[in-house]
Amino acid sequence: MTAARSIDLLLLKAMQPSVMEALAARFTLHRLDLAADGAAFLAEIGPRIRGLAVGAQAPVDAALLAKLPAIEIVASFGVGYDTIDVRTAAGRGIVVTHTPDVLDEEVADLTLGLLLATVRQIPQADRHLRAGHWPQRSFPLTATLRGRRVGILGLGRIGRAVARRLEGFGVAIAYHGRNRQAGVAYDYHPSLLGLAQAVDVLIVVAPGGPATRGMVDAAVLAALGPEGILVNVARGSVVDEDALVAALTAGTIRSAGLDVYAREPQVPAALVALDQVVLLPHVGSGTDHTRAAMGRLVVDNLLSWFDGGGPLTPVPETPWSETTVRTRP
Ligand code: 8YV
Q: Which domains does the chain carry?
């Protein structure tokens, strides 16, 4: 008797060890990054691939999906999935899953840390001490969170977790998103420009992708005013990075705290040169605890799918339902 063939799963590159271990226990893994000739590799194993596990930043475009005629599911590590062509996937009945919920509180914690670090210049104060300047001169007085009005762009799961924390800081909270949210007491602004005019801190938590590209532009930044602070923990694409550098350089806004950039891991030298900004290397969800939870969810989505239980956390665009799941040819 021959053993049942294991399911072929493609990885564009290695994922964290706990994920690799769990996947290897159930699937036959194929690593595109280890292939000497990627095109030849895909031509050979592409037709057998039934699942794809990817890190959040790895592009899964129509050209890649076209080389995977038998693919059923793309399981992505991360809540944002702007690098995955979900429309093409949906058109072919391919399920796409992501990792929402498990990272909300972690990213919200980091967001508040980044906001405080930016307003109170915590990294700069640390640099001042380490450079031995303290005995010669006190660290300069900084801006404050007191009396500030904070606007949130994107009041989704993470945005709401940020807002809950902000309530404890005693600041006024407002938001902009596609729709006013029922049961939410914060001021709603139907336009981003209107929100920016009403606040002096803007926190970007909106998803990336074409609908939000370059939304935080020169006009929005100018509306924040000279005491304005921009915090972005979402996607670099949401902010016009050139306009941001120009606004910071000209003093149109006071500062920025950034965890994400337009062309990661490249960060414009002009941003790095600005001492008042706080720059993090996309670490919003980056703790052992939360990355382990995200990894488990990637694995559990794949196991559930191939066990016939459907996806656990499909993206909204995925045309999945109990009735369609097992009627695929
Ligand atoms: C990623 C993120 O998971 O969830 C997201 O959308 O941006 C991060 O939490 C991280 O970049 C790992 O790829």
A: 8-102+288-306 (3.40.50.720), 104-279 (3.40.50.720)
